[in-house]
Amino acid sequence: MTYSCSKEAIILYKLHFLNKDISSKFEGCTGISQSRLELLHQLYQVDEISQKELQKEVNIDNAAITRHLKQLEVNEMITRRKSPNDNRVTLVSLTDAGRNKIHTFQEEKESFAASVLKDFNEGERDELLNMLNRIQKNIKEF
Q: Model's pTM, two decimal places?
């Protein structure tokens, strides 16, 4: 007896594995994960932010943000310090090196995205974006 998946299940399966492949290739090409780049991008928008607020902005769990920030700190891209007003609060900010490097990462991200979508014309890209937005909306409503 063979088991066959519905077309919808196959689509979700492909989206799942595309996400894994994109994440792996992205980090290989840019030298940074998409999660860490998003953290840097959020930090670029502010002078300093609490780790808890940053976690909410990028919507990742507590363990993941700690792991990412620790690695970014080791790479001297961010600094963390305790709030002078509340020792329980950790404040995070970009270093000058981090601020300078984010431009390079953004360029590499754009190049990666262009390579991934190289065989898609503008209309197909618009249609794909629309479909992905609809999937995202459906998931949020679920």
A: 0.78
Residue 127, in any domain of the structure = no
- 58-79 tens-digit pLDDT: 999 999 999 999 999 999 999 9
- At 27, list the tokens: 């980090």
100/75 Cα distance (integer angstroms): 13
CA 135 to CA 142: how far, in whole Å?
A: 11
Domain count within the chain: 1
For the chain, how long is the longest CA-to-CA vector? Answer: 66
Domain that holds residue 90: 9-107
| 131 assigned to some structural domain | no
Strands 49-50 and 78-82: unpaired
